[in-house]
Amino acid sequence: MDWGVAAIWLGLAVLATLISVGLRLSVALTEILVGVAAGALLGKDLLQTNASWVAFLAGVGSILLTFLAGAELDPETLRRSWKEALGIGLAGFFAPFLGVSFLAHTLLGWEARASWLAGVALSTTSVAVVYAVMLELGLNRTPFGKVILAACFVNDLGTVLALGLLFAPFTAKTLAFALGLLLALFFLPSFTRRLFARYGGGTYELEAKFLLLVLFALGALAVWSGSEAVLPAYLVGMVLAENVGKDHGLLRRLRTLTLGLLTPFYFLRAGSLVSLPALAAGFAGFLLLLLAKMVSKFLGVYPATLAFRYPGRDAAYTTLLMSTGLTFGTISSLYGLTHGIINEAQYSLLVAAVIASAVVPTWIANRFFLPHHHVEAARGLREEVKP
């Protein structure tokens, strides 16, 4: 590990935070944009963007952020609003999956498998981006925010299943991973409750160490099976919501670790991976893919929110946040490149569109459609949990 390079990364994170405060933008958004600029000005070699330690810290950041999003889901809210989460989430997956695939094939001339891969990559919703934005505003504590996060999970579950069914062979390793994950999800709640009750609460931070152990172990099992380490994180967070989600002290400590150190590497690295020359050469294709995702998301999600009687501003804000993408979009794009489904030029356009979808809808949502009544409600909830 190069400490000088690490200092550059944290310097970029501080710069992004100052820009975020000054311009009143989401820090996740500014970190991505600063990452794009840093990749272009400093170069990937100086930043060591592809170094194993940078990739590891970025990966841990995405895993912990996804876990925290799941841990803050209120089971009672989910039981009351499962129809909304399911309906909005499925609409958020199918509309861009079909729309982008069709446009990539007919307008860009991509062959069938590449077009389906594009549909998968741009069907995603970024739980990491949505959760980071909601955490800044406090919306993660409100029923409104929790339903959006649940819908994001349903959306991304559709993406994962589509990628597996269309392109990834089902093997014995896949079955082993599925069984191992199911067993872990079944036994974790009761085991964690007893473990934390007996040994938790000390300065030795057993809770954080145990949670990291579980996430790393299941992540290793996922990678061994040919999947991705981030996939089990949201489910683990959901099943531990009763234990972890109500421990505000533990949540604060995990957020400090995640947002203070790890997610800057994740968002900055995502931005630095954009190749501006490749983007300039195929700008029309990039713009078409980005618009295809955003328009198809609007055509799918907005009517679904109205069907559940969302007010206009709430419906627009939900639709725009559901239009974001990052983790699973880049994962799907990289899978297509490494397996020969798409070429390098198509990969660059897809990744650029994925990363732009993390920036553009977020900015529009917070600039023009911020639901102030939910933000005020979140502030009231924040006051209630203060000692």
UniProtKB/TrEMBL annotation:
InterPro entries: Cation/H_exchanger_TM (IPR006153), Na+/solute_symporter_sf (IPR038770). GO terms for biological process: proton transmembrane transport; sodium ion transport. It comes from the Bacteria. One of its GO terms (molecular function) is antiporter activity. It is found in: Membrane. Residues 13-360 form the Cation/H+ exchanger transmembrane domain. Coiled coil: none annotated. Gene3D superfamilies: 1.20.1530.20. It holds the Pfam family Na_H_Exchanger. This is Potassium transporter Kef. Keywords: Antiport, Ion transport, Membrane, Sodium, Sodium transport, Transmembrane, Transmembrane helix, Transport. The chain crosses the membrane at residues 52-73, 85-108, 114-135, 147-168, 174-192, 204-223, 266-295, 315-335, 347-365. GO terms for cellular component: membrane. It is a multi-pass membrane protein. The lineage of its organism: Bacteria, Thermotogati, Deinococcota, Deinococci, Thermales.
